[in-house]
Here is the input.
Amino acid sequence: MIRFLHIADVHLGIRRYRSEDRARDFFHAWRSCIEKYALREKVSFVLIAGDFFDARRVEPQAMNHAMYCLAKLREAGIPVVVIEGNHDQHESGNKFSWLRSLSQWGFVRLLEPVYDESGTHFVPWSDEAREGSYTDIEGVRIFGSTWYGATANQMLPILVDELRSSRDPQRFNIMMLHTDVEGQISRPIPALSVAKLNELRGLADYLALGHTHKNFEIDGWIYNPGSLEACTVDEFTNRRGAYLVELEGGVHRAKLVEDYYRRPIIRRQFDVAGQSTPEELDAALFAHLHSDLTPHDPDQTDAPAPVMEIALRGQLAFKSSMLELNRIRDRVQEEFNAMLVMMNNQTVPVEYAVAVGLSEHVSRAERERRVIEDLISRDARFKERAVEMAGLVLEAKRLALDAAEPVQIADLIAERLETIESRRDNGTDEIRRN
Ligand SMILES: [Mn+2]
Here is the structure.
């Protein structure tokens, strides 16, 4: 049995949130993943399907982070097979790149197609030159490619032809590709179509993808592990990991492994319905959070501070402009010692949810009354008097349509408000007496 590890988008050297801790997270993810799933599992090789580095101009500390594991892998005799991604691709017109240097120095095998006057070709790996387009390790032949961006759909037939003539039917053939795939991204950029990818089917037994920072699999032969760590706030909620693949008798079994160091994310939902003021909402929300969450202890150095996502949903009982998300976010961060707090506001503003559930047979007049009543009752200050207030609004409207004098309308409103208020006071007194 052969085992290998497939990762992508390590993004060493990335800088986020002006936080040195966060930059180190990417090193810790890389280090713990390699230690646990490559060195301890004694895999036959490691695949990195692009964007090993966050930038082609590699920062000194990012190279230190890379070498920490590459040296251990070389010492253990585990080859690391790499392709370029959009972030660490060599500059056009410059034949030097850090990935090419690492390949020359014997720490990785960088697989690249070769270009000449006649087109794109796959050439076998040369141990002397330490370059090539495909390489054999045990019973496996691994093909590399490079970042094609918007031209991926045009390039694919060429890769298919090269793969057809260079694949070894006696071996398990792996193709490495750094690309977005249609249907797996939400960005409006051209992605490789699944129909095009399927042209590789039968030629490649395993398509090792990188680029999209979330995990996906297609039809049991296309695998994208996702980035090792979250590169943006949005990505925290994506599933991601590394593939530990077992290979026996030409049959593979890919398992997504996620149990390595990564910044923990805590997600909580809270229904705001029934909280009639911002103060009430605060009290209920924080009571809810404290009831099942222990604040992170900053003295515990082996456990990193979490990223927290708080989703608010349900119908707001006050104007949405009174919902101070930034203030809630800051308070969550402070009380729970989170590294970062994301607020996800899914509440329905009081301004919108009106006349819910009205039958279509209801008359226009009744519909109007319900809309007005609902609008009024969403504001906790008027909720208990919504029916009378709606009646008053309709009366005032009728007067206005009858071309009444403004002062006449104002008098009506003043008079009726007084009645409504006094009725309410009496009602409250009665309740108190009981
Ligand atoms: Mn990437």
User: Anything to note?
Assistant: The chain has a mean pLDDT of 90. The pocket of manganese (II) ion is lined by residues 9, 51, 85, 87, 211 (CB under 6 Å).
